[in-house]
Design a protein that fits this description.
heterodimer, A: mainly alpha, two-stranded antiparallel sheet, 11 helices, B: about 375 residues, mainly alpha, ABC transporter involved in vitamin B12 uptake, BtuC, two-stranded antiparallel ribbon, globular
């Protein structure tokens, strides 16, 4: 399949598809970061994670609509406001869900899977009732449109670049929060030894709730980023949930670095192959390779060495 | 918790429940329901095969597979390929540019029957394939995963990914699989028209009979030593391993058995519905199959059959009258079954109706009363 192209053409194809894959990479990283916190740290399988992302996307859509009608002059900065609101909305919903449902199920991980799947069905139908079955999109402000031409053949879309930067900032923040802050230390203590953490005075219930809310909030930010590269429908989130779980498992469930590395590998592989094969075959091949590697190396790429 | 009936009266009670189900399926439904509704029930019963398989591998073995739709679909597709080849004889497809191949292949500029379609000209091969194709796939997955001690959540996620892969593959390879529409327009089985009401009634009885046979088979497996090892493995896997049992092989076996049951269900589904499409293969149907089992009671074979019947009947009822409420109801069902009654209908029955029934049938059980063995008691009290 490479034979039809000359060497410089091939290089620019790889570069172009690579940058195109970066948008997918950003969505994967943001989704997977939230999931890695919830699944890796708490052991909860949140099948409704895609719906938390879509909540963020709808929040962004509403914010964009608000800016457009009330203060069109400030439309250029709506995205940053929307991102913040998306985080708050998803985190609040996450907190509520944790309090109503998840906290009763911590000792039954497989059952969290079924219960959160039920939640995802309810949320999907709620979105459909509120926003309609049709997909909605937001228009980007002018400064985010267009692309930078690096060479004659290679162009980088600006919105993809912004989403990428944003992802890196958020990933860094999450890293600092989990591994450099007092609160992160509490979370990790609860994960490693719950009774001991309780004994030294950590309010484990509160830590659980905030951890879950944080994971959902990051999914909300992923949703805000999602509006820049695709349109939002009630079931858009479901398309990403399997991929995201594979990203988390492939990276090694408790390693944030592994999550980012595997998101990069999977999104780039998919995006590059899409140019040469049909989209569906690219996806099938990527998933097959990932599942194959996971069968050979079940602990994922970057397994934390923990004594159990 | 609850009083433990003796082993022998338990057996007779189990037999009684089984007879009640058999009577319901073979007498009550055919008498009460018209041909259309009976066909619907027959369709639901094909899901019960999957649910029974899930009781074995999830309820008893502790292996949650989110890819049962894959096996259901593979069984269904094997049957559909045979029926489609029969429906596309050179005479029937004379108007195509390549007569003798299925119509969707012709539309997709495929000019020759692909190699993996060739053996499906033979009915006996198809019958074997309906069981063996799912079993072989389950065996490969099972050996790869269980030998490396991958289980629980990871297994669930990977089986789900496999369901996603197969769906995308079927939709993407339109020329070979019929794409998103699936394999449609199936007419006859060995010259016997399967579309008429009479044929559907016959197929209903075939389905019911096979289902009852599968329930008996599953009961036999659970009653044997193997069944006890499964339960022990679910509760204390390491202890079973240290006792010298090869845990992985037992898991592979039960996973393959569940796959075989799903495959049979899928084939019967194709026969009764008259088509097969990727919408019965993917992630969503696979999880729905788990909920049939969970609603019925993940530890109860008969409960799983009732669960499949009830959830599907509710689904049909809801989507006929309030289509927008259905997803809410289904979602609430998922959450309720996990939070409020994790043992499903069977659990509710044991808790509330069993004491009542005992009062009525008390005299019958006393005659054969022997002190319960420790093992029987433990089996009873599994959560």
């Amino acid at each position: 399949m490479f034979a039809d192209y000359s060497m410089p053409e091939l290089m620019s194809i790889f570069a172009m598809q690579g940058f195109a894959g970066l948008s997918l990479f950003s969505i994967f990283v943001l989704m997977a970061l939230g999931l890695a916190i919830i699944f890796g740290q708490m052991g909860v399988i949140n099948m409704a994670h895609g719906e938390f992302m879509i909540l963020g996307a709808y929040t962004t859509y509403l914010t964009a609509g608000l800016f457009e009608t009330v203060m069109p002059g400030l439309y250029g900065i709506y995205f940053f406001v929307a991102m913040f609101l998306a985080f708050i909305a998803s985190a609040l919903l996450g907190m509520l869900v944790e309090w109503l449902m998840i906290r009763h199920l911590y000792h039954r991980p497989l059952d969290t899977l079924l219960a959160t799947w039920g939640l995802s069905l309810i949320l999907q139908q709620a979105y459909r009732s509120i926003f309609g079955a049709r997909e909605v999109g937001v228009s980007l402000p002018d400064w985010m449109m267009g692309s930078i031409a690096v060479t004659d053949l290679v162009e980088i879309p600006i919105n993809g670049l912004i989403v990428m930067m944003l992802t890196l900032v958020i990933a860094t923040l999450v890293y600092l929060l989990m591994f450099r802050s007092g609160w992160g230390r509490q979370v990790r203590a609860v994960v490693q030894n719950r009774p001991m953490a309780e004994a030294v005075g950590i309010d484990t219930g509160k830590v659980d709730r905030i951890t879950f809310a944080l994971g959902c909030g990051i999914a909300g930010v992923a949703g805000a980023a999602f509006t820049m590269i695709g349109s939002t429908g009630p079931t858009s989130g479901q398309l990403y949930i399997v991929d995201t779980f594979l990203v988390v498992v492939f990276g090694g469930a408790q390693s944030l670095l592994g999550t980012i590395a595997s998101a990069f590998t999977i999104s780039q592989a998919q995006s590059t192959m899409e140019f040469f094969l049909s989209g569906s075959m690219a996806k099938v091949l990527t998933l097959l390779v990932v599942v194959g590697i996971l069968m050979l190396r079940p602990q994922g790429l970057f397994a934390l060495k923990v004594r159990r | 918790m609850k009083t433990t009936p003796s082993a022998s009266s338990l057996m007779s009670r189990e037999n009684l429940y089984f007879l009640v189900l058999a009577a319901l399926l073979l007498l009550v439904f055919p008498v009460l329901l018209d041909a259309f509704r009976l066909n619907l029930v027959g369709k639901y019963l094909t899901y019960a095969f999957v649910a029974v398989g899930l009781v074995l591998c999830w309820g008893k073995g502790g292996i949650l597979s989110l890819g049962q739709g894959v096996f259901f679909g593979l069984g269904g597709y094997c049957m559909a390929m045979f029926l489609k080849l029969e429906a596309s004889s050179p005479e029937a497809t004379a108007s195509q540019s390549t007569p003798g191949i299925p119509d969707f292949m012709d539309w997709n500029q495929v000019t020759e029957l692909p190699w993996f379609w060739q053996p499906f000209h033979s009915f006996s091969f198809t019958l074997i394939a309906v069981v063996m194709v799912p079993v072989i796939l389950a065996f490969i997955i099972g050996v790869a995963m269980f030998k490396r001690r991958v289980g629980g959540v990871y297994f669930a996620i990977i089986t789900q990914a496999i369901a996603a892969i197969l769906t995308i593959l079927i939709i993407g390879q339109q020329g070979f699989t019929g794409g998103a529409n699936g394999i449609t327009d199936l007419r006859t089985l060995m010259g016997w028209d399967i579309r008429g009401n009479e044929a559907k009634t016959v197929l209903y009885f075939v389905t019911s009979g096979l289902l009852l046979a599968c329930v008996l088979l599953a009961r036999h497996v659970l009653g044997s030593k193997l069944g006890r090892i499964l339960v022990a493995m679910r509760d204390q896997e390491d202890r079973v391993r240290f006792s010298g049992y090869d845990v992985a092989s037992f898991k592979v076996f039960v996973f393959c058995l569940a796959a075989a049951l799903s495959g049979i269900g899928g084939a019967l589904f194709t026969l009764q519905v008259g088509f097969m499409s990727p919408s019965f293969v993917g992630i969503v149907p696979s999880i729905e199959m788990v909920i049939f089992c969970a609603v019925g009671g993940r530890h109860s074979l008969l409960g799983a059959v009732y669960g499949a019947l009830l959830v599907n009947a509710a689904k049909t009822g809801f989507s006929e009258s309030f289509p927008e409420l259905w997803l809410y109801a289904m979602g609430a069902l998922f959450i309720a079954v996990v939070l409020a009654f994790p043992n499903g209908i069977a659990g509710l029955y044991q808790r509330y109706l069993m004491p009542l029934e005992k009062k009525i049938l008390g005299g019958l059980g006393k005659a054969a009363n022997t002190p319960p063995t420790a093992a029987a008691r433990r089996m009873e009290e599994t959560p």
